[in-house]
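User: We ran a pulldown and think these components assemble together. Before we commit to crystallization trials, I'd like a predicted model of the whole complex to look at. Sequences follow.
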Amino acid sequence: MPRPAQNIITFTIDDREVKAPENAMLVDAAKHGDVEIPVFCYEPKLGQPVGACRMCLVEIEGIPKLQTGCSTAVKDGMVVHTQSERVKAAQRSVVEFLLINHPLDCPVCDKGGECPLQDITFGWGGGLSRFIEPKRHFVKPLELSPTIAIDRERCILCYRCVRFSQEISEDHQLVLLERGTQSYVSTFDGHPYVAPFAGNIVELCPVGALTSRPYRFRARPWDIEDAGSVCTLCPSQCNVTLTVRDERVLRVQAREHPEVDDGWLCDRGRFAYPALGGVAQANGAGPAAAGARVVEPLLRDGGELRAVPWERALSEAAAGLSRAGARTGALVGGGATNEEGYLLARLMREGLHSPHLDSRRAGALPLDLHRALNDPGLQARVSDLEFAHAVLVLDTDPIEDAPILDLRLRKGARRHGLKLHRASAADLLDSTRAAELAQLLRDAGEEIVILWHERLTAGPDGASRARAVLELADTLSLAGTAGAGLLEIPAHSNGRGLREAGVLPNAGPGLSEPSGSDGADGPDGLDALAIAGALAGGELAALLLLGEDPLAGGQRDGAETELWGRALERASTVVAQATFVTDGLREHANVVFPAQAYAEKEGTIVHPDGRIQRLRPAVALVRGREAPRAQWLLISELASRIGLDLDTHTAATASQRLFDAVPFYAGLTLEEIGGKGVRWQDRPAAEAFPGREQLV
Amino acid sequence: MKILFDRIDEPGLNTLEVYQRRGGYESLRKALAMTPEEVLGELEASNLRGRGGAGFQMGKKVSFLPHGTIEKYLVCNADESEPGTFKDRELLQKTPHMLLEGLIIASYAAAASRSFIYIRGEYVQQADVLDAALAEAREAGYVGERILGSEHSLSLVVHRGAGAYICGEETGLLDSLEGKRGNPRLKPPFPANQGLYQGPTLINNVETLATVPAIMRMGGAEYAKLGTETSTGTKLVSVSGHVQRPGNYEVELGVPSRQIIYDLAGGPPPGRTVKCWFPGGSSAPVLTGDDLDVPYDFDSLAKAGSMLGSGAIIVVDDSTAILDVALKTAKFYRHESCGKCTPCREGTNWTVGMLERIDRGEATPMDLEIMASVQEHIIGNCLCVLGDAMAMPIGSMIAKFKDEFEAHIETRRLQALEPVEA
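Assistant: Here's a predicted model for the assembly, 1118 residues in total across the polymer chains.
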């Protein structure tokens, strides 16, 4: 689907000539001339303007009536006035109309201080009300959902939340009931508004009508600071702003990035933050309970994990790992950063001389396939999902695996005529069905994106399925087509970054041939499943877990979980870094080091489409005490006790070591990544991607 | 001159048999023998202006539809809800085939292949009559595939509304027809470009479409000789209120209003005089007894500061307090405001509040100024014309009967102060 081209035109606003993209709505075009036209209902993310609030009325020469700036497209030579007496009178009257039924309870309203209605009243209102009749009353506040409170008296009926529910998340639950001045927002029959993206309406609300129940009355805008970071709870890696008060995260809001999240968040990302503190504190007084946030090192003592000083834990862990040496395996996952993965791989390969490390749950894939699937010429970006002619959703349900992509696909289908097809791995291996599928896709157009999940490559058929995907991509000539390509959803939120950092049994940093400590090509290590087998069989003795608990619920099937149970039972040393005490760790770990959660962490991660993004620490305290030591520092300290100097003393040097080690990251700096991230495929260094030969 | 109401009370006119005996569907045959462009030419030559309220030229509206093979819709607005208006009801009930014939001809001129008649839910009896007539027309081959052997095909659905005034607003009607809450849409895009189901759509009032067979029969130029130069033809006028013979009357546009109110409708009861009158439904600014000689046509009424609107004259005589007229009018629009845009939703509610306060004796003359300014802030600033529909008549009443309002405020205030007798 061709993306709209932009034509720059000149128009006059408040007697000044301004250049703006043709057909931009006046409200947006005015910003190019630093003119602000106030709005309530207008929100371009919600699709077509509705012109309901009438706040944006402006005067356009040649048109007798005032026009809504939110719905009038700017044309060359248009002459617009936003400061004439007529416009000001209309703006004052709309503010007056909106306030007559608004309770004006700003001093006790969560929105007070960051409220568009306050700001616009202050900036454009008349400052007086002539309304002395009784105001409209509703019972309030009510639970719209377990996470959202609704105050219908504050509502100015701008329709944003209803439009979100109807046209963005398409859950069709929110409606306006009754009519005229009695209208109110509700679900149709009053049931709770429970939907995967419901929380977005709190952010959309321009007044305090919809508030977050976990955030209610926790802070005023002048108590808080914003900290930009990236949510690592799933591979979507949505950009977020964390609201911080007194070193605690109190709220998560979207930090709009059109190439990542389009300005939306899922409810998991938005409301999971209270859990980052854990259910109860593990402390020296008693044994660590499952679900507790790990805030200090824990050591197995008399069958229970108990808190010990860092030095003690470090020497115990180092001793255990040194004893096992090359008979150590490692799993990396969760929200582990590239730097953590890279340093851990070095600890394993150079310190312990063990190649047995993996960041994939799906098992080993030949290195040539890794390279082919990640070839920079074949990678689609998130925004391609929106503008593609067709998307093949392969072996995944985005709402589960990467929720925010679900909204992007809906947007493509609703606004740009995207054709959506779904298939499973079995369809690909059946040559008739695969051919039919290819034909269906080809019929839709040239720009085709295949959205697939790592699980496609799991099991004994994994490699042949991966080849089938590549074959399909080749049939459809995705490699040469702009706006087309593959997009993989990894099992871990930073799955792509960890692989590129070399956390694979058969690849070093940058998907290079793995090397031994002496620089010679090393042997392939065991993959995750084989590590389990080797531990259970006694060939391996120790296990290092970084952000992974192989026994944690639902990730692996029954037989595999059972194998891991035996593996952990038999392992002589299990060293873990974890945010929470899980049942698996409580049962089997010898040493558990506290790990930082994403709000505390510094480092880089890689989005599934290759965008390298930065995590920035937002808080320095966890449950009132100092945040855990950074993982990169811990790995570096462990390494030095084993006799390996990783020469990494700050988070920035850790990143630098990584950028130096991965050829296609060459020359990257943290400044270049900045707040919006950078796709490595778009940088010249991408040419250094190994083995760009055709495979199929 | 009677065109629409020609022998309207003939028994059985609602049946195909009687309608055909009187030459019904001959205009359709004539039209189908012409090209759509020629039919459109006749419609344009007739200068027929829409009878629903806005008075836009019908032929021009048809010509706005995009050409080409794109699927087009024709929607007949039979959601006659303007207070005081009941002309379409009589047409629907007594001569439904005239509407059907006009609609089919219009669909041919507009090259529309799908059509809907959106009839207000309260018109149960009329909808039943219309359904029966449609069944007859379908049976006779006037509706359906390849009408009368021509290339033109038309599907026609009669859809009953659920009783909201706002669904008479054309875009509100379209949303309602699509199964949504009947809220007006932002214009542009106009329905001619993006209407029903985002397709190009022609929307016409019942009376407008019912006039089409006569235009085809007489020829557009001949029809245009009726009435005035800019307001051609005849018009059905619903007269109600304080008159001795309320009802529907067909007049040639341009006759003096006095003639309609007095000669046809009998004027107010003996001993009373006309205090004010709504010339075009309750949305039209009121005129007073001094304006009775204004010719009844689109432009003369506009020049007099009001409008022809839906062609419904509501007469108020001197026995009625202007406050009661204002309150009744404002309450109707508050009740019918959809709530989508701010000035209408809040303004109608506020206006009713202020009028009620006057009635309770709790107002001061300053409230009159506030009320007038609220009307000014509504007019022209709303999403659709419903807000204006209240603000224009209320504004006109305040302007024309300021003294009476002030006196009313004072009297009620003093009454409220007096101790209640035990």
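Chain B has three domains: 16-224, 234-317, 322-416. That may be worth checking against your pulldown data before setting up trials.

User: Thanks, that helps.
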